[in-house]
Amino acid sequence: MFTLPLPVHDAETSSGGKDLGHLPDWDLSDLYRGADAPELARDLDWLETECANFAADYEGKLANLNADGLLDCIHRDEAISRVAGRIMSFAGLRYYQHTTDSARAKFLSDCQEKITRFTTPLVFFSLELNRLDENALKAMYDENAGLARYAPVLRRIRAMKPYQLSDEMEKFLHDLGVVGDAWERLFDETIAGLTFIVEGEEMGIEATLTLLTDHDRAKREAAARELARVLGENLRTFARVHNTTTKEKEVLDRWRGMPTAQTGRHLSNDVEPEVVEALRAAVVGVYPRLSHRYYELKRKWLGLDRMQVWDRNAPLPLDEPRTIPWDEARATVTAAYAGFDPRMADLAEPFFEKGWIDAGVKPGKAPGAFAHPTVTDAHPYVMLNYLGKPRDVMTLAHELGHGVHQRLAAEQGELLASTPLTLAETASVFGEMLTFRRMLDGAQTDAERKVLLAGKVEDMINTLVRQIAFYDFECKLHAARREGELTPDDIGALWMSVQAESLGPAFDFMDGYETFWAYIPHFVHSPFYVYAYAFGDGLVNALYAVYEEDPDGFEDRYFEMLRAGGSKHHKDLLAPFGLDASDPAFWNKGLSMIESMIDELEAMEG
What we know:
CATH architecture of the largest domain: Orthogonal Bundle
Distance between the termini: 58 Å
Number of domains: 2
CATH class of the largest domain: Mainly Alpha
Number of strands: 5
Radius of gyration: 24 Å
CATH topology of the largest domain: Neurolysin, domain 3
Number of helices: 28
Helix content: 55-70%
Shape: globular
Strand order of the largest sheet: 3-5-4
């Protein structure tokens, strides 16, 4: 089933400002000129006919195909994916521009329902692929190089074989998927429709979360308490959404015989459970040396006896409040990209020039940020909520990294371009690192260097420590839901159980902070997504260390890795750099980079 692009960032780390200059809007006409475009109606008609023809031509016959026949079959499936993906990308992106617009919501829902209905007859395809004899399949790969190219796709499909249900049941579940999507939309529309009042000013959730990075501590506290108040008033809805989606997952997992709630995510990420557990263990093991140590430093810088939750992302006292206009943000990021390799800046330029970025904060717009690849015969689109502070520049660098990656991987074609989430964060985090290093090299004073280092450490803690804490919360949430319905207080207790452990003894937690799980979209849209951020950050730290140690030829190897898309396993992608994510030392290499930055910050205290 084809689903929406996901707003992927923890919006609590965004920032605010005014006088930003002209902020670009999306031009979606590269997909379709409008909801009533004749091309869209044509594609829907083609999709309905082709899905029916595909089922008629191949259902019950895959085992009888030779290598050429199976390759033709895969090419037809790829064409269906491309057309369906274009339609859903258009509908989804329009919706995220204005999630409270009922006409856009209806259009999205209608497209989703039609495509689900059209593609239900295709469920047989993956089921029959999984019944093919492995030796026969390998013989066909040897015979036909074109078919062998799709071996990684078939390998990932066939990894689901142990958890496959009957053909009839799989079709039923495919058809029922739109019902589960309705809970995700309820979450999105509820979040987008929330109104907060801080110091007499009415605002949405994005602007309210932004105030948590304000220089004025009273304003940060007011924003945090208003978040708690409004989330608390809507907590029954959020608890119902979480109870329902986690129960739905439990039922599906139980029927499929999945051994854990996380198994499905590991399979879709093409990563071994022991690799994820090694990552988690490494990060949790260094909580005292990273987050606990850093926040104790920050407590002293802020002159506080105790840190409160609204101080976590507070700017340092010596950080001068500054609004960064859009053009300056663009120049900073593109210069950093070009400094690494001019090809990166060239790949990023059309995002700014051709309406591939939607940057402004607008009523009803989805919070957070994402880069959506759409389809390989179009191009990616980036969504931001740009408010003009350094973290927003980093978010631009992050999402453009995704966009560059998606453009390069598109060369692989529809089925092979998609990168597992764990590797999808590589180029985005690397783009951030390049931008940070350029800004750090340009620092004129020790104070400026200290602000930049502290900001980067905080971003890494938010990505590694916070996201692993999120992952632990989800593990606890899904385990508890298997025992029965959870009250809002139950969920809040699980949330609080991971917060003190991850943030450390410098913090006190206000009443109401136990509701802050409610606004994180990943928990609803994509369970266990969050560890991909930590995976990506740890991977890039290790990768950047290799770049610093031996830059010769690194750029070409890096571009080859991005071009591979989903055609290679993480072991094969990292081998040219002498890295192996299954080696516990790999994660320590990345974590030691953060530790060295905290060492430098401590040394500055002299």
